[in-house]
Amino acid sequence: MKYRNRLFLSLLLCTLGVIPYLAVAEQDESSGRAKGLAALSSLEVLAQKGDNEALYTLGWIYLQPTKVSEPDLDKAFKYLVQVEGELENSSRILIGYIYSIGTNNIESDISKTEITFREASSILKAEFREITELGKKMRSLSEGELKSYMQRSMQAQKDHNILYAYAKEFGIKID
Fold it and tell me: What is the DSSP code string of 81-121?
């Protein structure tokens, strides 16, 4: 089951474009690894400054093996719990995943996973309602508002797909 989870995460990360910097290592081992380490280092500097995208990306990266890092679920958790704003619910879903499998410092607890997934589902439902209302006004939106609407829609759909795939994987029913 852990293999399937890692495979799912790896495929999802590639789909979302989260690890293209790290994939360079496949082409040229030494320079690719150096580029991957540099990208990882840059993300960590941004994360220390509170950059939410960097925090979220590092959380993703540390969930699976790459050419520049081994999975470190404790480190992933550390970054994900700091995420705020637009990516907070996305992080909540990954935190629920971590609760389900446990780490060196966090005991596996499916009840925490269930609570976290239900919170994420509730937030997603509210987000979809807002997006639907905004979508009714699409013709009157400025270019910037339309771009924001599209980004919110895509992120909410990704979060929905990830949440329900994990919920199914761990036998959690979400309305």
Answer: TT--GGGHHHHHHHHHHHHHH--SSS---HHHHHHHHHHHH
Torsion angle (degrees, nearest 10) of CA 20, 21, 24, 25? -120
Q: How far apart are CA 66 and CA 38, in angstroms?
A: 14
Burial 38-60 (b: 16+ CB within 10 A, else e): ebbeebeebbeeeebebbbbbbb
Angle 157-170-4 (CA atoms, 0-180°, nearest 5)? 80
Find the largest Cα–Cα distance for the chain.
Answer: 51
> Among all chains, which residue has been given the structure tokens 């619910």?
89
Using an 8 Å Cβ cutoff, are 99 and 113 in contact?
Answer: yes
Distance (Å) of CA 49 to CA 11, 72, 74: 29, 21, 20
Tens-place pLDDT, residues 55-77: 999 999 999 887 767 889 999 99
Phi, psi (rounded to 5 degrees) for 27: -75, -50
Please, where are the H alpha helices in the chain?
A: 2-16, 20-23, 29-48, 52-61, 73-80, 88-101, 110-135, 143-169
| pLDDT per position as a tens digit, 109-165 | 999 999 999 999 999 999 999 999 888 888 888 899 889 889 999 999 999 999 999
CB atoms within 10 A of CB 30: 8
